[in-house]
Write a structure and sequence with these properties.
5-stranded mixed β-sheet, about 260 residues
Length: about 260
């Protein structure tokens, strides 16, 4: 079995895979103060709580953007005597990246592109609603070619509340109307319908540039399902797409 780790700036997602089947997933905060001890205790707790045996895990695969925590995760893998791979340079031979500077492409974007092409076909466009809102474009050959990066929904909400003294944080829910009828709905229109409209506009432009009007559009990330309630731009909502991409890359590495 594989333990896949998607280490974002705000949350870390963990997925337990048997071949390509996702058996269970968990989320934990991405806390830069966590030590290997704390991480190991959390993993053991998640497995115990969910009824899985940690000793059945054969390997760990990472996609991460927090270097200081990557060291701690590697220490955990060493303690558990598990081989570990990191999505990026060491997995480049099994991924398809056609960016101008491939070494600058985030590991999560590589995983998203790999999973999108493998599971849903190419061309495809992935909109990942995480700390940032990333849009990843996969061309007709299944290669990641670029995309867009925008502030994430939570970042936008935090900035709004911090700068506008009369506004408070509101639930991340899709309002019933595009025109808010009260302050809460007005904020929800901006922070939920706004990103949905941005996705619609950017996806439409990207499809034209690709000359692929039928490219599959996939939403992923922690808030994907919320935003998807405000738009019909998405063909698929797959909140575990990144974890599946990490698993696919690991499996391909085993074939080398």
């Amino acid at each position: 079995m594989l333990l896949a780790i998607d280490m974002g700036n705000t949350q870390t997602a963990l997925g337990l895979f048997d071949d390509r089947t996702l058996l269970h997933s968990w989320r934990m905060p991405t806390d830069r103060t966590f030590t290997a001890d704390e991480i190991q205790m959390r993993i053991e707790g998640y497995f115990s709580m969910s009824g899985y045996d940690l000793s059945l895990v054969d390997a760990i695969a990472f996609a991460g953007v927090v270097p200081e925590l990557s060291r701690e995760w590697h220490e955990v893998a060493a303690r558990l005597d598990l081989p570990a791979i990191v999505v990026g340079a060491e997995t480049a031979k099994v991924t398809n990246i056609r960016a101008v500077r491939p070494n600058e492409v985030g590991a999560d974007r590589i995983a998203n592109a790999t999973a999108a092409a493998a599971l849903y076909g190419a061309p495809a466009i992935v909109v990942d609603f995480g700390t940032a809102t990333n849009i990843d474009v996969i061309d007709q050959t299944g290669a990641y070619i670029g995309g867009a990066i925008a502030p994430g929904i939570r970042i936008s909400m935090d900035a709004l509340v911090a700068r506008a003294s009369k506004l408070a944080s509101v639930p991340f829910e899709a309002p019933q109307h595009a025109i808010g009828r009260n302050t809460v709905e007005c904020v929800q229109c901006g922070i939920v319908v706004g990103p949905a409209a941005m996705a619609e506009g950017l996806v439409a432009r990207m499809k034209r540039e690709l000359n692929e009007p039928n490219a599959t559009v996939i939403a992923t990330g922690g808030l994907a399902s919320v935003v998807a309630n405000s738009t019909d731009v998405f063909d698929v909502v797959d909140s575990t797409l990144t974890l599946k991409g990490i698993c696919e890359i690991w499996l391909r590495m085993q074939e080398q």
